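User: I'm curious whether this sequence folds into something compact or stays loose and floppy. Could you predict its structure so I can see for myself?
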Amino acid sequence: MSKIDFYTNPMSRGQIARWALHEVGADYDQHLLDYGTTMKAPEYLAINPLGKVPAIIHDGKVVTECAAICAYLADAFPEAGLQPASDERADYYRWMFFASGPLESAITNRHMKWEPTTEQEMMAGYGSYDKAVAALEGALSGKDYICGDRFTAADIYVGAQVDWGLQFGSLPTNAAFEAYAGRLRERDAYKAAKAIDGALIAEAQASAPPA
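Assistant: Here's the prediction. I'll summarize afterward.
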């Protein structure tokens, strides 16, 4: 199988894609891009017109959007066992798309200090932040992973949202989220990917000019 070209910045959602690449055991070349410069250069805009990372190129095809990258890699590397079984498919797609759509929107809007009114909740895809969070908490309560007792590619994306949310306060601390994140942080692929991005961040900070 051909090597994957992986476009990223360590201080971005590229961390999710790197984790997915390690979970499936993919061979990849990383291309580090800077915000406002190489990320907005014509060469990269030809890959992703939005000028954001991550993106991967595999067998000549471009995949962007973290949830799509997770799902694509699970399909492209079936030997990793991250695709859903027939009885897991409903939860797999439901919660991966929930996390990338309603939950992401709810978190982003709250960060930007915009909350829908009761009337606007009918138009907002997530209703309200509290409702979106409660839905995810309910989905994880009493289960080890989002599809049940087995880790799948959906857990990479959903898990990254929970992991990030707990670290930076965009999600509340509760027993379901803490237990779920704790299980994911013990995975070898998670640790390996985080170590790479952590080292890249430290290197960039050490070389940055003093403020």
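Summary: Strands lie at 4-8, 28-32, 55-58, 61-64. The mean pLDDT is 96.
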